[in-house]
């Protein structure tokens, strides 16, 4: 959650044409109005991200459910995805030589 807060503090959201919205808290136990707002934003499951245009309507919806979601600009979203992809990159295989020692080495 701290990484999300760091992303939130970087860039003013009003300047970005697109917003990437991620649901980070669960829906059960929330108010009906908040559930309906998340449904209108097409956020159904935790850790799912949707892209929406940056309009006053969407920003008002986000203000209503701000404790449940994280809002990122396009640059912040791409940077986070690149960082996650670099973390998951395949590492080179560990090669172990299992040759039995030769008789000449033993003598």
TrEMBL record:
User: What HAMAP family does the database record attribute to this sequence?
Assistant: Ribosomal_uL30_B
Instruction: Say which domain of life the source belongs to.
Output: Eukaryota
> For this UniProt entry, which residues form the secretion signal?
none
**Which part of the chain is the Large ribosomal subunit protein uL30-like ferredoxin-like fold domain?**
20-69
Q: Please give the organism.
A: Flemingia macrophylla
> Is Nuclease tagged as a keyword?
no
Similarity remark: Belongs to the universal ribosomal protein uL30 family.
UniProt keywords (A-Z) are: Ribonucleoprotein, Ribosomal protein
This protein is called Large ribosomal subunit protein uL30m
Record GO cellular component, one term: ribosome
